[in-house]
Amino acid sequence: MANTSEIRNGLCINYNNDVYTVVEFLHVKPGKGPAFVRTKLKSLTKGKVIDNTFPAGHKIDIVRVERRKFQFLYSDDSGFHFMDNDTYEQVMIQKEMIDRSDLLKEGEHVEMLYHAEQNIPLTIELPQYIELKVTYTEPGVRGDTATNVTKPATVETGAEIKVPIFINEGDVIKVDSSSGSYVERVKS
Fold this sequence. Notes:
Oligomer: single chain
Distance between the termini: 51 Å
Structural class: mainly beta
C-alpha cells in the first residue's frame, strides 16, 4: 500500500476491482479545506477513462507491471497477434486493448505491459513515432501554400491521416502514435 503522494503519470493502481494507469494528476492545496489529488485514470483492461479525486493521504494499491518487448505479426477476426522477442511465444490481444491500432504495421516492435503477479497482458504501447508509406492521396494544388493547408492521406496500414499538401503517394511520413498526426516527411 502507498499513499497519494506517490501518484505520478504512468503509475498503475488497483481501483474498483480493475487496473488503471494514471494519465494526468494534479496535487491541489486550497486555501480552505484539506488537500486532494485530482487524477485522470485509464482502465488497462477496458480502455475507459475516468476522472477521480483522492483525498490527501488516501491509501492506494499499486500494481506492479512489467514491460516486455514484442513484435506485431498480423491481425485477424480474433484479434492482434504478437510474438515475444525473447521466448518466441505468441500472444493474442483484443483490439480494444490497443490505442491507435490502425497505425500498427506488420513487423513493428512494441512494448506490452504485463501484470507481474497474474502474468496477464494489460495493454500495448506503440513507439512514439511510426514511419508509414503513403498509399493514396490527392495531388496538391500548386500555389495553395498561404496557410497550413492539409489534405487526407491513406497510409499502408489503412489509417487516414491529415498531411500537408506537398506530400505525394509513395512518400514515407513520420506519424505521432499518441495523436495519429503527421510529424514530418522522412528523407530517403
